[in-house]
Amino acid sequence: MASILPQFDNSEYAVGWIAALPHERAAAEVILDQEHAPPQHKHINDDNIYTLGSISGPNGVHNLYNCGKATAHGFEERGALNSPPRVLLNAMGALQAKHEKGGSTIPVILEAMYKDYPLMAKPRQGPGYNYQGTNCDRLFQPQYEHAATKKDCSDCDSENEVVRPERPDQDPYIHYGTIASGNQVIKDARKRDQMSKNCLCFETEAAGLLNDFPCLVIRGICDYCDTHKNDQWQKYAAATAAAYTKELLQITDAADIKSTPEVREVIHKC
Questions:
Q1: What whole-number distance in Å separates Cα of residue 156 and Cα of residue 148?
Q2: What GO terms are given for molecular function (predicted)?
Q3: Average pLDDT, stretch 193-218?
Q4: pLDDT tens across 240-263, in order?
Q5: Can you name the residues that pair with 182 across neighbouring β-strands?
Q6: CA separation, residue 258 to residues 14, 161, 263 (Å)
Q7: So what's the pLDDT on residue 67?
Q8: Whole-prediction pTM value?
């Protein structure tokens, strides 16, 4: 498990990782290689909660802070947002090439998470951060609405289920492209299909953030934006996104990050 270390100066932290929900924060914290003491000081108007730590890779050690943030309500289309930092785009391209040659280490990172934090894989109640099984991964025709008798889909008509090819393994797939960011949860398959042209998925936490400063949005997909939506896969999605983030930072050159504009110049807007 991550060990608590002495306090570092705030200026030592070069990467900001923003997690809006508790399970996203938990997944981000447990994949740290080292956890540090709390920040020395905060801006008087900064009400965020921080976890400090580091992730090590062959290209250096990245000190990062994990920032918790609340979400807004209501949906509106805002157009194009700021582009991600070039250093992260370059690292992402290098990671894609690495995956083409030798695959991803996400499964290894997840297994280490479950070993060090067994309660995350087998919680006392509710779904865990582990793979939830194909029986809980069901996609229905857009016109077929959820049977309201139960929260899960055990009473839904299998005749309306979309038949898909069997996956060769349980490892998560990695998709690259546009993520549509708004501030309303979508639970309508027909609306989803109308809005989903040229985008991979929908998310609700990053819209306001990207207006303030450029960042890279990494999301785990947990449902199909239809009336069958539930929380079964939320924690697993958070875990896979955190694992990918760790793999990305491990391949990112620490010197390149230090040469980019400092996030602390705008973090008071977070």
A1: 9
A2: catalytic activity
A3: 80
A4: 999 999 999 999 988 888 888 776
A5: none
A6: 7, 49, 10
A7: 64
A8: 0.87
Amino acid at 106: I
Contact between 20 and 67 (Cβ < 8 Å): no
Compute, in degrees rounded to 10, the torsion defined by CA atoms 233, 239, 242, 247.
-120
- Per DSSP, the three-state class of 53 is strand
Interatomic CA distance for residues 231 and 151, integer angstroms: 10
User: SS3 of 268, please?
Assistant: helix
Helix (H, G, I), strand (E, B) or coil at 198: coil
pLDDT recorded at residue 106: 98
Local structure of residue 109 (DSSP, 8 states): H
Angle ∠(111,112,113) on CA atoms, nearest 5: 90
Share of the chain above pLDDT 70, in %: 83
Burial class of residue 22 (count of CB atoms within 10 Å of its CB; 0-12, 13-18, 19+): exposed
- The residue-averaged pLDDT of 72-83 equals 48
Residue position matching structure tokens 């929260």: 151
Buried b (16+ CB within 10 A) or exposed e, 121-160: beeeeebbbbbbeeeeebebebebbbeeeeeebeebeeee
